[in-house]
Design goal:
single chain; 276 residues; alpha+beta; Herpes Virus-1; 3-stranded antiparallel beta sheet; 29% helix; Replication termination factor 2; Rtf2_RING-finger; Rtf2
Length: 276
């Protein structure tokens, strides 16, 4: 039954303690966020897009999800807030000249630096590998490091020259607190857009149904006559109907347009032939 031959078990072999929590490799976690699509888990390749929460996706993966949302995918919860392709922005990234791609280590016999990134900040040259915070502009899609925007303060994009505001910046792969802040800002922005659409629609309906008041002189003074608003489209349709009606009436001789005036009527001359 064990312990034969005079073996003495040790305490750690008899008493089972709590299991050690496995530590997550930070390098692998950073590589998953900055080198792989958050939806398909495939390597990022152009065109690359980002959502309002700062997650990175391959554009074709997002399009496939929008075309068929019922298909089974492993990470659909990360794209639940994406309603259409307008909810993502295609990124204008700057290539890293030191990035050699997968060709250098195709055989797997070379050291591969996990912190070597495909893209860099075009202003200060920092690599987009997760060690430094990066953000993108919702106006143009250009990507910069947060340090560059802090050190070189401007209201014009450093890369393309388009104007932007502070609220147009979205942190890429931010912390939990930063993503909660972006989530709140996204919900407020969508609520404002929905309210604006409703108010604009109500104004159009009120303008179309509101009558015009015209002043007309009466026997006891001025009086107001209400006249409904007629749009350009309805005016054109009424005019076409009147023209068709007049053309139809002109076929008959009893219509005013078919009658001749006295000047148009010729005098009838009766000729009686005489035969001798």
């Amino acid at each position: 039954m064990g312990c034969d031959g005079g073996t003495i078990p040790k305490r750690h072999e008899l008493v089972k303690g709590p299991k050690k929590v496995e530590k997550v490799d930070k390098n692998a976690e950073l590589a998953a966020k900055w080198k792989y699509c958050a939806l398909s888990q495939e390597k990022l390749r152009r065109p690359i897009v980002a959502c309002e929460l700062g997650r990175l996706y391959n554009k074709d993966a997002v399009i496939e999800y929008l075309l068929d949302k019922s298909a089974e995918r492993p990470n659909t919860e990360v794209v639940g807030h994406i309603r259409s392709i307008k909810d993502v922005k295609e990124l204008n990234l700057t290539d890293n000249p030191a990035w050699e791609g997968e060709r250098r280590n195709a055989k797997g016999d070379c050291y591969e630096d996990m912190h070597r990134a495909m893209f860099i900040c075009p202003v200060v040259g920092l690599e987009m590998n997760g060690k430094h915070k990066f953000c993108y502009l919702q106006t143009c899609g250009c990507v910069f490091s947060v340090r560059a925007l802090r050190e070189v303060k401007t209201e014009i994009c450093h890369k393309c020259g388009d104007p932007f505001r502070d609220e147009d910046t979205v942190v890429l792969n931010g912390s939990k607190e930063e993503q909660e802040k972006l989530q709140k800002a996204m919900e407020e922005k969508r609520a404002q857009a929905k309210t604006g659409k409703k108010s604009k629609k109500n104004k159009v309906v009120e303008t179309a149904s509101k009558p015009l008041e015209l002043e007309a002189p009466g026997p006891s003074g001025s009086s107001k006559i209400e006249k409904p608003i007629v749009t350009a489209g309805s005016k054109r349709s009424i005019q076409d109907m009147e023209e068709k009606s007049e053309a139809y009436k002109s076929i008959f001789t009893s219509h005013s347009s078919a009658k001749r005036t006295k000047s148009q009527m010729s005098n009838w001359v009766t000729h009686t032939p005489y035969h001798f």
